[in-house]
């Protein structure tokens, strides 16, 4: 664990990303304390510019709502959707890919054909269709993003398991009389966790972008404030009130950038070959 932390700390970009993400997480957790006012409440005249003496540091939107309140409460939505959809995608993709890679044969063929079917459809288009069918809500958005996100996970896990299933420690486990289930989930999968962890961090970033895109198109939950909704609501006044799109856009940019930097740092820390080079 100490070696992992040292390798991770060598990547300055990853540390910066971790700091940014921690700030976003703290803001999301303590959103009701930081901004007790509802993000839907009209507090001033519309189009109040940011950094004025009105007591509203980020100004107001087209309906006179506090932009800072929307930004703070929107952080919670983005993180929840990103984390939960990634977790659901992992719960689907990891077991499917592991079983396909370990047993091979018709099981592998069937699993990969299903995976290829989902991958032939553009993920964003499929997410739009799924949300439209299920009606826009936080649950439907999270489920739709999870459904379009699991195929790459299944393929990655399948490849890792196929590379590990003929290793010496697997043969030793078989000679010890362990069942296939215990060998797969107790010995092979733990040794394949490094690329899965790295991919999961990048999937959270992709999920946040997908949620923002869906909300921008008006397919978000109409009762919940999100960064994508803020940008979408302000797109018609981007010339006269540029800050309404710019501020939540920067929030999305920084969060996604932070997750990508963390993913790069995790890859450096968990990759055995890079770890040996660093010694």
Question: Which helices and strands appear, and what pairs or packs with what?
Answer:
Elements: H1 2-10, H2 12-29, H3 31-34, H4 67-103, H5 105-119, H6 123-134, H7 138-164, H8 168-175, H9 180-191, H10 193-216, H11 227-234, H12 243-270, H13 272-278
Helix pairs in contact: 1-12, 2-4, 2-12, 4-5, 4-7, 4-10, 5-7, 6-7, 7-10, 8-9, 10-11, 10-12, 11-12
Mean pLDDT: 89
SS class: mainly alpha
Q: What is the makeup of the main sheet? A: none
Report the C-alpha radius of gyration, rounded. Answer: 22 Å
The run of helices and strands is HHHHHHHHHHHHH
How many helices in DSSP terms?
Answer: 13
Distance between the termini: 15 Å
Please identify which CATH superfamily of the domain at 86-271 we are dealing with.
MetI-like
Enter the CATH topology name of the domain at 86-271: MetI-like fold
> Which stretches of 5+ consecutive residues score pLDDT under 50?
none
Percent range for β-strand residues: under 5%
Beta strands, count:
0
General shape = elongated
CATH class value of the domain at 86-271: Mainly Alpha
Helix content: over 70%
CATH architecture of the domain at 86-271: Orthogonal Bundle
